[in-house]
Amino acid sequence: MGKKRKHSETQTAEPRKKDEGAPERPKRTLMGWKDKDEVNQQTESSPDSPQVFRNKEKVMVTCSRRINYRYRHLMLNMVSLLPHCKKDNKVESRSSKGATLNELIELRGCSSALFFECRKHQDLYMWMARCPNGPSVKFLVNAVHTMEELKLTGNHLKGSRPLLTFSSNFEKDAHWKLLKEMIIQIFGTPKEHRKSKPYHDHVFVFSIVDDHIWFRNYQKSVPHNESDKMVRGLDKMTLVEVGPRFCLNPIKIFAGSFGGPTLYENPFYVSPNQIRALEKRKKAGKYAKKVKAKTRRKMHEQSNPLEPDEFADMWRE
Amino acid sequence: MGPRSKDLSLLQVENNVEDDADDVIDDPSEEEESESESESEQEDVKLMEPSKTAIYNREGLVERLEDISWPENVDWMHKLSLDIDQEKEVDVNDDLARELAFYTQALEGTRLAFEKFESMGLPFLRPPDYYAEMVKTDAHMQKVKGKLLAQKRQIEEAEERRKSREAKRIAKEVQAEKLKERAKQKKQEIEEVKKWRKQRQQSGFKDGKDSMPDFGFEDGKSFERSSKKRPGVSPWDRSGGKAKQGGGKGNDKNKKNRDFRDSKFGFGGKKGMKKQNTAETTNDFRAFNKGGAAGNKKRKR
């Protein structure tokens, strides 16, 4: 691969990759890396072996039809945040969703996908899937704030590699660990990607609160008076929120891509349709309850008759 | 595969189908889930039966994790991920605390990463002279700036308004004080004169000596205009002498007129015109326009 090194400053002492007479194109499967790196041998050999790990992650970002404006902007924000993504056209309805999407991903030559599905113009579901036969997750997205909101005032380089921070809850359970790994692979920009920029000037925050994954994106800003480049008064660093913001509620984890046996179901998840139905049902009984209350009062009055009031005729003419 | 229905009511059916399809060790994990369920059920009444049958295939998950994860010896530089310890539980509904928690998590992460980068000798933050495409356009940032400035201006204006209100109130109080002072002074002086007269009466008007107390109002000072007032400005002039009325054309006439009236009616200007005509002043035409009266009357009709 030609080394288009635009940013010579960021060259590290990493050994150059040499194609050691690998005759065929490596398969873009999950096993592909393992074959090249020969993991088992590598752990024993020195770290400067010629086979080097390359992050060839490509994410396909699509949405369903009839998506809301807010969610469409969220999708576009994601596209601008991930330089290693490919945006695709809207996908038709849900009949054979899994197969269609898998084909699309293969066609574009991507290894994962982010699919935004909007139902009833109100609810947004996000699928994170690993293409060939990897696991996939379905989330319900809440609390969406896009980058266009004027209260989110930060800005950062387009395509610079983010710093991913996870709260320690991610180690607590198996499904969180799996989610963490998927997030690292999808949201982390590959190291020497063509469209990536040097310097790391923004941070992603993934935090689990109340069994939801909260996402925030902050810009690192440092006052410019410091003359020294490196040690730039780190105490004075402030973080300004760039956006977007959203909150993910995991619904199910599947073993295959967009389908397959369920590995995990969120026991606390209630679908938004159900929530709306319950609220309506609560309101629906209002009239019936009123009628019942009236009859109850009548019965009560009949069973406990009042004593005649001695002053009732006082003002009568 | 196939369409995933979102209704929980269909979950039962799906579970049965999947139970056939895969090797799931549900029961021990389900018990764990149901325990946690019973606690949450008190808060969230909507959770009912379906949650108890939630699938949790630990081994499947771990297996998948191993499948997809990158090899162990991958440089940290590829992943750039950090784990931050979250000390205390954050209440979801408390917005400020939650955002603060996220902020501190990000700050911690940045600090750790900075140390790592420094040890590796790599540049970390963007130097101020590096210009490249940013994720938000310049036009958008202009809008943001405009909004921030507008907010700041609003706050400042509110401050100013409040201050001026306070100042006005204080000024009013001071003015009231001054008026009271003056009234008191006047009363005092009148009392003094009365006293002196009574004294004189009592001692029978005999002495020509100046046993007169020196009244403060006798030295003619009160007829002078107070030095506070500006020389060219009349006391009834609201604009403070800064409004120009038709250039210098009418000024001489008006000033002469004005001066005459002042000397005639004295202290207090217009409102002091309490004196009526006297014998001398009936035929005193100094204050009137010379011969302009007849012509004006004709024109006004």
From TrEMBL, chain A:
All residue ranges annotated as the Brix domain in the record: 57-259
Disordered: region residues: 1-52, 286-317
Amino acid composition bias (Basic residues), ranges on this chain: 286-299
Biased composition (Basic and acidic residues): 14-39
Keyword Disulfide bond listed: no
Membrane spanning stretches: none
The protein, known as: Brix domain-containing protein
Origin species: Hibiscus sabdariffa
Automatic annotation (TrEMBL), chain B:
Protein name from the UniProt record: rRNA-processing protein EBP2 homolog
Record keywords: Coiled coil, Nucleus, Ribosome biogenesis
Transmembrane segments: none
Localization per Swiss-Prot or TrEMBL: Nucleus, Nucleolus
Pfam families assigned to the protein according to its UniProt record, in alphabetical order: Ebp2
Lineage: Eukaryota, Viridiplantae, Streptophyta, Embryophyta, Tracheophyta
Family according to the record: Belongs to the EBP2 family.
Biased composition range(s): Acidic residues: 16-42
Biased composition (Basic and acidic residues): 180-194, 206-226, 250-264
Region (Disordered): 1-52, 180-301
Organism field: Hibiscus sabdariffa
InterPro entries xrefs: Ebp2
